[in-house]
Specification:
It is built from four helices and eight strands. The chain is α/β, with parallel strands linked by helices. The strands form two sheets. Strands 1-4-3-2-5-8 form a six-stranded mixed beta sheet, with helices on both faces. Strands 6-7 form a two-stranded antiparallel ribbon. A hairpin with a 4-residue loop joins strand 2 and strand 3. 36% of the residues are buried.
């Protein structure tokens, strides 16, 4: 069935599914200052405190059967104050692993309907490096990447541009999770992404 929003700042999604409490999630002190955790926050020092329940954790994953090939993406959005989650997944018939990893982040942030602090948990080095190192350079170069003295096409440019728009609204902290390491939410996201592309294969 359709998802019931885990919090009033979440939009309902057609592929969403409400889940039970999430166990084992370590979270920041929601009542404490957040500027250190979210570098570059646009809030004044005196106002950079969050009411309980105003921070979310976003777990994302993506994968392909072949690369390129049929692929799936998935996210799990956790509301730590209540332990409730919203889950969504989807797929494409011809795509790449990196594109699905990036699509999962975009889809997860898009369900938020007002500015929110988010900790992004992903095992994708592609997404992490793009977010933390490369995006400002790509944007300054007209969403192209530099190869020596020349510019080259940036793959998945439209998704990076959409992510850039979302980052102008939300404060996001990136945390890398080791893939297939027994991390509950990460492993669940991986399974959801696989299930999404297996449906495209008729399995």
């Amino acid at each position: 069935g359709q998802a019931r929003s885990a919090a009033p700042f979440c939009r309902e999604g057609p592929r969403g599914r409400a889940a039970g409490e999430a166990g084992g999630t370590t979270w920041l002190d929601a009542g404490g200052p957040v500027l250190g955790a979210f570098p570059g926050a646009r809030f004044e020092e005196g106002s950079a405190r969050l009411a309980p329940g105003e921070v979310l954790v976003l777990y994302t994953d993506g994968g392909c059967s072949g690369n390129p090939g049929p692929g799936g993406w998935a996210f799990i959005l956790v509301h730590p104050a209540t332990g409730k989650t919203v889950e969504q997944s989807g797929g494409e018939r011809e795509t790449t692993n990196n594109r699905m990893e990036l699509q999962a982040v975009v889809e997860g942030l898009q369900v938020l309907k007002r500015p929110t602090f988010v900790e992004l948990m992903t095992d994708s080095v592609y997404v992490g490096k793009g977010l933390s190192e490369y995006m400002p350079k790509w944007k300054a170069n007209g969403w192209r990447r530099k190869e020596g003295t020349k510019f080259a096409e940036l793959k998945n440019a439209e998704l990076w541009q959409r992510l850039d728009q979302l980052l102008a609204t939300h404060q996001v902290k990136y945390t890398r999770v080791a893939g297939h390491s027994g991390h509950t939410e990460n492993d669940r996201g991986d399974g959801m992404a696989v299930e999404a592309y297996r449906k495209l294969l008729g399995k």
